[in-house]
Amino acid sequence: xxxxxxxxxxxxxxxxxxxxxxxxxxxxxxxxxxxxxxxxxxxxxxxxxxxxxxxxxxxxxxxxxxxxxxxxxxxxxxxxxxxxxxxxxxxxxxxxxxxxxxxxxxxxxxxxxxxxxxxxxxxxxxxxxxxxxxxxxxxxxxxxxxxxxxxxxxxxxxxxxxxxxxxxxxxxxxxxxxxxxxxxxxxxxxxxxxxxxxxxxxxxxxxxxxxxxxxxxxxxxxxxxxxxxxxxxxxxxxxxxxxxxxxxxxxxxxxxxxxxxxxxxxxxxxxxxxxxxxxxxxxxxxxxxxxxxxxxxxxxxxxxxxxxxxxxxxxxxxxxxxxxxxxxxxxxxxxxxxxxxxxxxxxxxxxxxxxxxxxxxxxxxxxxxxxxxxxxxxxxxxxxxxxxxxxxxxxxxxxxxxxxxxxxxxxxxxxxxxxxxxxxxxxxxxxxxxxxxxxxxxxxxxxxxxxxxxxxxxxxxxxxxxxxxxxxxxxxxxxxxxxxxxxxxxxxxxxxxxxxxxxxxxxxxxxxxxxxxxxxxxxxxxxxxxxxxxxxxxxxxxxxxxxxxxxxxxx
Length: 555
Hints:
This is ABC transporter substrate-binding protein. By secondary structure, the chain is an alpha+beta fold. It has 17 helices and 24 strands. Among the domains are: about 55 residues, no CATH class; about 120 residues, Dipeptide-binding Protein, Domain 1 (Dipeptide-binding Protein, domain 1, Alpha-Beta Complex); about 210 residues, Dipeptide-binding Protein, domain 3 (Roll).
């Protein structure tokens, strides 16, 4: 452990090459307004740890060269069947993402355990003074699996595809208003400058593994991904059989530490129960998708281990603000006050979740302000609010939602909680395809229902959660929430580069959302995977991305 003198020396060394944002972050840390963890994570975003030579408070370093370890081992993975064609441009499902991460790489990795950004195909990055141009230095001497050298042209072509409205890119919901086609520009063979639509203090997350479609592909990529799984990663493509499985073998020419296993073998299954049976039947070493609800039988079994990472994944209970039933914010507040969040965390997740406070600011986000009071169950106050809103005797409403993981059980809990304050809820639980429909107003139960529950996967920063479901022009605004003050605050938050400013604005956003209550977010649940007790070294993220390059099987 470093002593204080070493720590100050590291900070002084970092200041030598830090820009104004980096020096401000160090000042905030020394003044006690940032914790060590907050400084490390924020430094990873603005490139401070890299500019300081990687020494800043033991910040993580890029992967070093190495030699193969446990030669000959095969890691067997049970996973869901990919939802459709596997193509980095369009995939959104967990099974496809797990396949991408065996052969593909990003400019930056979002470390699932430490929740910090780490260099991958980019070795450093920094913003200009305004925060609307970010410059990335790329790793030299990297090759794609077909022998092509990786250069800035590949990065520019990748992001032009992702930001092209005509490409069918699944990343458009992330990049819209942030980066347009043509915004990425070649500076030289190993430098790329991203010219943004507007200042963005969290932009490195948009080109990291947090934006799961942003796997870097060759500039001459023309489709047909399932035939090559082209990339720069530690494994190379061996075989892919739709609806059956896939296999990948160690890449001997990898730029970093060589993979320990010789092979990773995926087998596809229809559901979580089938995966669990494969794990219990010794047909698999790792189970790619695991939930507390579906895998309760192995949570306390010493032959297996369920490991997790904290995440920002959550459920949003939306109430249509333009619907007569929920137009009065006091009604929305009453429904939020009827829920016992502690019981939800214990009952639905066996404690593997954190309390939500009806805003997207999860506890894992450094920008979240923990000083905002936590909303708690208060039946008497809820009844009082309903009476003040003129509905003392309650009302009838239908809650529409999807059949996915614990959501049907959550719907029942909401129904029973509402009953305690006189609100009578009928449940309509349907398939995901029916619930989401076309994903556009008038053609989607998700966006059209007066009351609904929707699943939201993890993101490394709250920007997408703040924009798409809650801004006046948000494409996922199921609550039909329109508040100019909120829109202005979100724009300010997105543009802020220093963490102190982000926290100040987040406190205002959190307070506003508690008052308006367009949505209820009762918890943020941990991302889990399960494996046999003899499996070690598997890395994964809160987005369900899996990395097996350091995996080892013991007897």
